[in-house]
Fold this sequence. Notes:
Elements: E1 5-9, H1 15-25, H2 27-33, H3 39-42, H4 45-54, E2 56-62, E3 65-74, E4 79-87, H5 96-110, E5 116-122, H6 126-134, E6 138-144, E7 150-157
Parallel strand pairs: 4-5
Antiparallel strand pairs: 1-2, 2-3, 3-4, 5-7, 6-7
Amino acid sequence: MGMSVTISAARAQDAEQILKLQYLCYQSEAELYGDYGIEPLTQSLDDLRAEIAQGHALVARLGDEVVASVRGIVDESGTARISKLMVHPRMQRHGLGGRLLDVIEKRFSGEEAAKRFQLFTGHRSESNLRLYRSRGYMQVSSEQVGPRLTLVTLEKAAVAGDFATSA
């Protein structure tokens, strides 16, 4: 009998598992762009702990193993900046990334009253772009940050009343 994946707030003791997952998940991005110096691969454990403490972090667990994660923070303008959505390679293509995105959006809509959601990815990261577009995100800008990498910023408005129940 299989185990089900549960999504919950990240705990301080999850930081090491999140960092290991991040290192694993961002190898393919680094290879795609020919740059192994990207921030997700160079982030320290202390920096990750600080990032988790200042914003929101969610994890998806299969038993005790962290198999997916996402982080974000709402800025003073009401923009929820979602970052580092990652799913273990063996768990990809099962809807887990979309589930995490839905949960963090709901959290930001409720607790933080975000007005909009924003995230970014590389221009060649087709599966990421496909996921974000399927969830209603639209490209709002792009910025060339290196000879091989253009960051694409996507955004969507927060829906008022995300927690309203229908009759």
